[in-house]
């Protein structure tokens, strides 16, 4: 039984979007508004290039797709417009949008005394957690408001580890993006790939479902 076992790692650092929850459709709708305004073709394939990437870097990718040049002031205005639209869409989120298996798995990990943190490039992480009813669930939240570099830079995971007061060998990162797996490797931490990241050769482990985090390979007697 799981109650008689301990977890292999003392801490788990989760990416937010694509791991704990899924707001890709909101990002897509918001960026589509900006791309359409600029006359730039934008589809789900291009949207996938923005996963795990900061807002300004995402805008640069879109601008490069359309070979559009803008001033820094214009870029800042468009980034704000995108975020305003995204936050409006996020208002549609409720605790009911949190997958029950995800919540059950998180609760089980907490019962195993595993420290848990969010390590996300999003500046809306706290807002999203609040909408999902998870405001006070995690031991630490490190997001785009407290980092200067995006993944694959390891800054977000290093800060999350320090917030948990753990060594890198004691932590594992759960990611759905290739850039996140690379960031974990750059931080010297093991990683668990889910979703797209389950195809990454750099992932220490690969899982299909969030509940697989409670698999035997992660539990010790």
Descriptive report:
- By secondary structure, the protein is an alpha/beta fold.
- It folds into two domains: 2-22 and 98-220, 3-Layer(aba) Sandwich (Rossmann fold), CATH 3.40.50.1000; 24-90, Orthogonal Bundle (DNA polymerase, domain 1), CATH 1.10.150.240.
- 40% of the residues lie in helices and 12% in strands.
- It contains eight helices and eight strands.
- It has helices spanning 24-38, 44-48, 55-66, 72-90, 100-111, 125-131, 155-164, 178-186, and strands spanning 6-7, 11-14, 115-119, 140-142, 171-175, 190-193, 205-206, 219-220.
- The strands form two sheets. Strands 4-3-2-5-6-7 form a six-stranded parallel beta sheet, covered by helices on one side. A two-stranded antiparallel ribbon has the order 1-8.
- Strand 5 (171-175), helix 8 and strand 6 form a beta-alpha-beta unit.
- Helix 1 packs antiparallel against helix 4.
- The model has no long low-confidence stretch (mean pLDDT 95).
């Amino acid at each position: 039984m799981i109650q008689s076992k301990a977890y292999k790692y003392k801490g788990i650092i989760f990416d937010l979007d694509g791991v704990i929850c899924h707001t890709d459709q909101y990002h897509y709708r918001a960026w589509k508004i900006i791309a359409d305004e600029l006359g730039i073709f934008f589809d789900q394939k291009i949207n996938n290039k923005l996963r795990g990437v900061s807002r300004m870097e995402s805008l640069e990718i879109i601008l490069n797709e359309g070979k559009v040049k803008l001033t820094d002031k214009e870029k800042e205005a468009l980034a704000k417009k995108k975020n305003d639209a995204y936050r409006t869409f996020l208002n549609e989120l409720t605790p009911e949008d949190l997958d029950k298996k995800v919540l059950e798995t998180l609760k089980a990990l907490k019962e195993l005394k595993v420290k848990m943190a969010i390590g996300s490039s999003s500046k809306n992480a706290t807002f999203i957690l609040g909408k999902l009813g998870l405001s006070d669930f995690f031991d630490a939240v490190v997001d785009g408001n407290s980092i200067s570099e995006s993944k694959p830079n390891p800054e977000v995971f290093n800060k999350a580890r320090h917030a948990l007061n753990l060594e890198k060998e004691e932590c594992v990162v759960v990611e759905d993006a290739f850039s996140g797996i690379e960031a974990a490797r750059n931080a010297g931490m093991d990683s668990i790939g889910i979703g797209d990241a389950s195809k990454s050769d750099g992932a220490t482990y690969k899982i299909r479902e969030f509940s697989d985090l409670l698999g035997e390979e992660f539990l010790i007697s």
